[in-house]
Design brief:
With 458 residues, the chain is of the alpha+beta class. It has two domains: 19-159, 2-Layer Sandwich (60s Ribosomal Protein L30, Chain: A); 169-457, no CATH class. Helices cover 49% and strands 11% of the residues. It has 19 helices and nine strands. The protein has helices at residues 10-13, 22-39, 44-49, 60-63, 65-68, 70-78, 88-93, 179-189, 193-205, 209-232, 247-256, 263-280, 296-306, 312-332, 337-340, 346-360, 365-377, 395-414, 425-438, and strands at residues 16-18, 52-59, 102-106, 109-113, 118-120, 131-139, 142-151, 157-159, 284-286. A five-stranded mixed β-sheet has the order 5-2-6-7-8. Strands 1-9 form a two-stranded antiparallel sheet.
Length: 458
Amino acid sequence: MTTTPITTSVFDLFKVGPGPSSSHTIGPMKAAFDFRQRINALPTEQQQRADAIHIHLYGSLSATGKGHGTDRAIVAGLLGWQPETTDPDALLALLKDPAVQYDVVVGERTLGVGPQHIHFEKKRYESAYANTMVLRLTAGEDVVLEEEYYSIGGGFILRKGEPETAPVTTPPPYPYGTMNELKALLTAHKLTLDELILRNEIALTGRSRSEVNQRIDQILEFMHKAVRRGLRHKGELPGSIRLRRKAPVLYQQAKGLAHSSDSFLIFLNAYCLAASEENAAGGIVVTAPTSGASGVIPGLTFLARHHFHYDRSTLRAGMLAAAAIGFLVKHNASISGAEMGCMGEIGTASAMGAAFLAQCAGKPIEAIEAAAEIGIEHHLGMTCDPIGGYVQIPCIERNAMGAVKAYNAFLLATSGAASMQKISLDSVIKVMKATGRDMSTKYKETSEAGLALSATEC
């Protein structure tokens, strides 16, 4: 009997948008844009009565929202901006002057929205999700329209009252909800992992095979542009930490040690830091599966293209295998730092990266599963405790460490018999979910404990 099938698109998992946090930037921007659309669908009489828009943020959105740029992202969404087409420089410029209000279209008029309309609530809010936002259109003390949204990681949002899984027009031809079910389908239909994921994607999105392949190529190019930008850009990252970029220095070191046994790791570290530093600076990145983990897969795919010289079709197959692992974690646990701690972000990215490498190397599904399982297993319990709420310390270096673990997980899974692996991917995802549930909220993207308390030393 099949569990509830996964119906997430590859391009919902790999989304393009501005950093530094998919759950705090891309998700809130999408929610605010949706609220804007609903405001403008109201009857004219209700639009005319309204005199203000207020946004109330709870949980991690309140605790670290300032450092993550949540307030700017919400204003951008209300202005009609979309993540993939947002100018990162224009986004960073929003709310710099607290006296400036931004005109939001409400029917045939506009309402000003500024910092005074965004409320970082400290009180507990009864919600099933850690990242909750309540948006209200008001007329004096009356509420004209209210919507409650949840940012559930990776830029995915839910609106209160809507089902978590949106109905699909065409169901996937190969429905699965666990790795065991997925492997059974591969055996029964004699398919490779990438081919099965590709056929499901075609059915779910209505895209042709060539269109899916073209979009994967575009996603890879967005990733690699972030790496290239990060290798060039120097100086300090935004925010009070005053953290200096390391990627360009590491890259020059790696080039100088080209014949050293260490150069391979230094190159990989440089690529991962480059993309992650671009994310921290609010640049355009790809959620993989989140913005906070947007250095792992870009670093590994950049290495695979430029050092291993894999062709496009091999890289695409690897990306589809990585997506399959991301789907399983999102479906059966969570990819949100506010829900799982950093094991939900870097842990998932590392597992996805290990699967990517195994698929590109032409390994069977047993090795791909083992690589992914090892990747998650050795991130279990990892806290999410960013200093100052910025996606900088420990997040940037953690991306590089996650990629190195992914590579080692690939080596461990493929250097012996994968059948010797005692723990299944399904089992470790269950453990991940239980660990995230048991972990203190202080260690889940609130900056209230752990490394975040060392901010005074920075």
